[in-house]
Amino acid sequence: xxxxLLSMPDSFEHMPASAVRMPNGALVSLAGNVDPHHRVxxxxxxxxxxxVRETVTRLVHEYQPDVVGLSVMxxxxxxxxxxxxxxxxxxxxxxxxxxGYDPSLAxxxxxxxxxxxxxxxxxxxxxxxxxxxxxxxxQTDYGAITGLSYRAEHGFTHNPDRQLSTLEGxxxxxxxxxSRVLKGYTLLGRQSDVIETSRGxxxxxxxxxxxxxxxxxxxxxxxxxxLADIRDARDHGARSIFIVDDNLTLNIKRxxxxxxxxxxxxxNTIDFTVQAMxxxxxxxxxxxxxxxxxxGFRYVFxxxxxxxxxxxxxxxxxxxxxxxxxxxRAGNAALTAxxxxxxxxxxxxxxxxVGNPEDTRESVQANLQFARKFIDWPYIQxxxxxxxxxxxxxxxxxxxxxxDRLDEYDGTTSVVKCANLSGEEIEFMxxxxxxxIKARHWWTLAKHDPLFMARNxxxxxxFNFRGSSMKTFLGLEDERQAFAxxxxxxxAERSYV
Length: 497
Ligand code: B12
Ligand code: SF4
Prior knowledge:
The chain is of the alpha/beta class and about 500 residues long. Helix content is about 40%, strand content about 15%. The chain contains 18 helices and 19 strands. It has helices at about 25-35, 50-65, 75-90, 100-105, 125-140, 210-215, 225-235, 250-265, 280-295, 310-315, 335-345, 360-375, 390-395, 425-440, 440-450, 450-465, 470-475, 480-495; strands at about 1-5, 20, 40-45, 65-70, 95-100, 120, 150, 155-160, 185, 190-195, 200, 220, 240-245, 270-275, 295-305, 320-325, 330, 345-355, 375-380. Strand 5 (about 95-100), helix 4 (about 100-105) and strand 6 form a beta-alpha-beta unit. Helix 12 (about 360-375) runs parallel beside helix 14. The longest helix is centred in the last third of the chain and has 18 residues, at about 425-440. The chain is globular, with a radius of gyration of 22 Å. The chain starts with a strand and ends with a helix. The structure holds cobalamin and iron/sulfur cluster. Cobalamin (B12) binds near residues 23, 29, 100, 102 and 126. Iron/sulfur cluster (SF4) binds near residues 204, 246 and 320.
């Protein structure tokens, strides 16, 4: 059968087209795990943000798909429905499958027949999708396919959940990167890709979708498979790789062994980016950080979340941000973790969440000030009520969800009520600070990739300061006017189809 797999074009504030275009790892993993006689094309629509309608139309004509699959995050739901509509208008009898975080955690939202969706794959997709294609091809019953919801005569039928894969052996084969049909993946001028070494996390941060998606657990791929995956990404042109593990730092001994393995395999010429817990880096940084650097790690996304203790407990993220000395808790881990990384020439992508219900101007400022002082590239977000997270339940129970427009759930739009400040004010404070912190990092980027920066600095700067004009920089207008223009631009670009 012909299969067309699409990831959605919607992006959020931190994704300038010239600097960050990351492939969706799920779709190539699905493509690598279907039976080999299927012809699969994978298109990451973020690469064609301004030409979504034309591109989908072209791909449908070119690949004549029997099955179209969409990978959807919550803030992309509206776009997903519009794309299904478009696909159906071009090819009415096509089977439409959706999967990913939003269909898995908000399954009911996809079951209205008017949306034109036939199948919902909940949770891990590789084996469910393989079995689904077999059943469609052989026209057999869908009832035995765990993890699947399917359209039946009198409504959707939801089969039992699928057990998680242990990731051992060859149960999940390597991704099929050859299936990608669009070009342009980049991280700061170097062709980018994503790989996985493990899935899952045993923590329970209140804002994170991972626990509802798969429970609290940690499953690992073998290093043999991980190295083969990195080589495959490199052979497909990647010079920059994002390790998308939910929490690679859960097992530090394994992480250290991975660094040694990358070096031994000669793969440390690649720039690696990884997400990490501050506690793990603070506690083990002395030995771990030099090793990471040797293995090619360049950017580390630290889930600092907040520097104010009461906010950390609201986010249920205190323990992953506590350092330990002599087996005892010894305060916030963020500064120690950042210090280890900086001493070893790595850069910190600092994940912070501001605008929690009890935040004050001072607590927001404390976080922004921390970012200015210690973080290389800020990734500051607002609390966002993604489906079924514990935080969403708490916010809904307290009547604190200010917006139900899901396309605004991109993490950089304030959608939650705060007792002491308006959402717009918090967003303004974050937006104003963040642009200048990012601009400060351009010099570091220029040293690493002078040619890329020389070619792209104008576009990157224009994106970074969207909404601002000469008048703003000369102080001839209130920055709030520039902010209002920026918000207008964001609102307009949310219509992708
Ligand atoms: C890597 C990552 C990113 C990367 C790269 C994204 C990319 N291009 O893939 C970056 C940093 C850019 C990013 C950004 C954002 N992300 Co992100 N990201 C992740 C992360 C850490 C891993 C995703 C991944 O690749 N997993 C590995 C693959 C193999 O697993 P998977 O995606 O789950 O796919 C499996 C199943 O879901 C299913 N499946 C998925 N799609 C499909 C499609 C079909 C047809 C089928 C059958 C099955 C299927 O099968 C797959 C294989 O088993 C997750 C999870 C986490 N713990 O934080 C968050 C996560 C997906 N991100 C999230 C969000 C919200 C965002 C942002 C909006 C900002 C933010 N608030 O963080 C932006 C938006 C990006 C954009 N387009 O502009 C949320 C989504 C929540 C939700 N309910 O929608 C998550 C879950 C994190 C969270 N907050 O809990 N992200
Ligand atoms: S440590 Fe990271 S992956 Fe684990 S629950 Fe918290 S935010 Fe999610």
